Amino acid sequence: MNAVNQSLQIPAAGVVLEADVVVPEPPRALVLFAHGSGSGRHSPRNRRVAGELQGAGLATVLADLLTPQEEQVDARTGALRFDIGLLSERVAALTDWLVGQERFADLGVGLFGASTGAAAALVAAAARPASVEAVVSRGGRPDLAGGLLRLVRQPTLLIVGERDATVLELNRTAMDQLPGETKLEVVPGASHLFEEPGALEEVTRLARAWFVRHLSPAE
Known about the structure:
This protein is of the alpha/beta class. It has one domain: Alpha/Beta hydrolase fold, catalytic domain (Rossmann fold), CATH 3.40.50. Helices cover 35% and strands 26% of the residues. The chain has helices spanning 44-55, 68-77, 84-99, 116-127, 165-175, 199-214; strands at 3-12, 15-24, 29-34, 58-63, 108-114, 132-138, 156-161, 182-187. The chain has an 8-stranded mixed β-sheet with strand order 1-2-4-3-5-6-7-8, sandwiched between helices.
């Protein structure tokens, strides 16, 4: 696969965020990752998912949602990772920047959110109905999006581990509030981090199929 790899600094909602961008040639669509729970663009799980998406011709953007200074604060307090208002504002701002770039202008945009980042992705999707075409949540906390779930019209895939009982119940409840096409996929034998053999591979297969199905191919 021929691909262009770049490390960028992207202005977003008053700060500058670090991002790793991989663009297959030619790209068919684009997926922005929203990390959560103290994670960032170096997340090995999200990078594995991104690699599979790239193999399907999807450009990927793994961006830190916090600045280095904010990450230090969050490492001490754990507070910012649950600030869904802040995180979703930055996901929306990153989306705006991406669709404003000439090389991405014709690409359908999807959001992949993990843990608390899934809530940020869903809120951003509600705020950007014209830009975001689909959402995938991995072990996500859609409940943290609150009443804004009812504004998410984009096709949404919720992936949860079978052994992640509390999060699974939260996702089942969220399904009833999401008005668009919604599907819950339960990965057999998997816990919250999908560390079991084959679990993350199943996540990547499901996410890739969802995005390929729902993201408009480049013209």
